[in-house]
Predict the 3D structure of the following.
Amino acid sequence: MPEPLSKLVLTRIEQRPEGRIAHVTVNNPEKRNALGIAGKQQLAQAFQRLAQDKLLRVAVLTGAGDRSFIAGADITEMKDLTAIGAKEEHTSTHRACEAIRALPVPAIARINGYCFGAGMEIAASCDMRIGITTARFGMPEVRFGIPSGMEACLLPPLIGWGKTRELVYTGDAIDAAEAYRCGFLEQLVEPSGLDAGVERWISSILAAGPRAIRLQKALVCDWERMTIKQAVQAGIRACVRARQTDEPRRLMAAFLERRKK
């Protein structure tokens, strides 16, 4: 059974022979899994705790129920915020996203419905995104009198500057087919195929070397802030570090043995 960090975020650890899989669920279905300050803080805490698990192989983030991933921030809470309160609220969005991005293993966004505002930022902070055909996406903040900030800055590398401008200037929603077409989603599936699609990714990650995946995740994070020249050298260093254990030798030997058969 899931062990609640609070009623707003549930974490369940699945143990497999290859290692542990974390299933993190935003648990506010009555409000389409909208996240207020407390929920964002708890989401950050969940991923910070997971980052300490040396046997963790992958994390899957989703929303409770079958209607919504994360439908954004809690507008009821935001409406009367002072400037100081607004800083806390928006900083809490960033800290949740930052904790997901800092996870040393891949994070998968399992998008099972509405994905708006902070929800789209949180999904963008994951390494890979799979969504169902009935999901909806958007950055509606300007319609509530504030700009899209924080990890909305992750959108241009994913979907391009033009599509980002369209979303943040108009506040219009797009359907799942458009989210897939523009590159926000890596997989688009029917609702009945969502878990199978997630499992395909999990199985592939579990088939890889645990240390290699952690080195790869760190390297991908480096690529975001480096020039091409710096990234190439960082890649060489990562490949050398991989040889500090026998993982490459074991996996290559196993591959060669399979090929002989």
